[in-house]
Amino acid sequence: MLNRLSYWRRIFKVYFTKEKGYLSFWHETPAVSDGIDPLKLGPYYMTFADKANYAGPKDGSGVILFDYYFDIGRQYNPLAIAQYGLGNYNLFLKNKDKRNLELARTQADWLVDNLEENEFGFFIWRHKFKWHYKQYLKPGWYSAHSQGTGISLLLRVCQETKDEKYLKAAQKAFASLNAEIKLGGVKFIDKKGDVWLEEYLIDQPTHILNGYLWALWGVWDYYIFTRDKQAFNLFNDCVASLKRNLPRYDFKFWSLYDLSEQFMPMVASHFYHKLHIVQLKIMFILSNDSVFDFYAKKFQNYNNSLAKSKFALLYKAVFKIFYF
């Protein structure tokens, strides 16, 4: 009951007051970066321009912190740290301002220093605060999303600085992406043989689409940088799995956030629906597979429909009443 009350207090504060805090970082305007070459490690695939301008708290070294308020308080979030670093890396490529590169490197240094070995021998970035998604996650939880995005930053900083410590950390982090959850990693293989990279490691995997795609970009970056055949095979297995399952994310008027099983499927919020469109456009660039372009355009058409947009908003409001 206390966990539930804290959750709703936090939701009220970030949604219904002027103090948006960490939510404003996540809910930036998604955009595809210019100049993406699928065979070169260049600008990160999304601009993260708003994330790079994060004005919230930082520690003494310049690593960003999130204030989650109330019972969670101020915390490091490995995923946010990686995305903030990538946003600044993109600004460095655009403006050639070395201050942005130093900010990116500062975040990458934190990732190097905070890569921890779990009880299975895999190196992961822990979120050292409790969180709620379907169930309460105990402090120390980890995620394919964080693993993949952290790798994406480490390799770009390594490319710029030539410091091998970033590559060594990325190599350690990659192993978890290619190991099943039951063995200590973040990969799930379902009964049909489809391969998933899970954002949240819970009893019944739900296959969150945005986290899967972000994690997968880290796999591709790792292949580009190292030419590791395991990364190449994992990327292709995931692309094949996505192609078979993208129709399941199509709710005929909007996209689904995940494939969790309950009476009401979990539609994406308007932010995440727009994010899906951008991510699918990027997947088309990386894979050159027309199925991603098809669904990017289909979801964009849903977004362009005022009636479907309003119905999705109403549906989401009802969903939150019953399930959150």
Overview of the molecule:
- With 324 residues, the protein is mainly α.
- The chain has a single domain (2-247), classed as Glycosyltransferase.
- 54% of the residues lie in helices and 6% in strands.
- The protein has helices at 2-16, 22-26, 49-52, 78-95, 98-113, 144-161, 164-177, 209-226, 229-245, 270-287, 290-304, 306-323, and strands at 66-67, 74-75, 116-117, 123-124, 131-133, 135-137, 187-189, 195-197.
- A two-stranded antiparallel sheet has the order 1-2.
- A hairpin with a 5-residue loop joins β3 (116-117) and β4.
- The longest helix has 18 residues, at 78-95.
- The protein is globular, with a radius of gyration of 19 Å.
- The mean pLDDT is 94.
**Beta-strand percentage?**
5-15%
How big is the Rg? 19 Å
Estimate percent helicity.
Answer: 40-55%
Number of strand segments: 8
Tell me which CATH architecture applies here: Alpha/alpha barrel
Could you say what the CATH topology is called? Glycosyltransferase
Distance between the first and last residues' Cα: 13 Å
CATH C-level class: Mainly Alpha
Write down the overall geometry: globular
Order of strands across the widest beta sheet? 1-2
The average pLDDT value, as a whole number, equals 94
When the domains are counted, the total is 1
Main sheet record: 2 strands, antiparallel
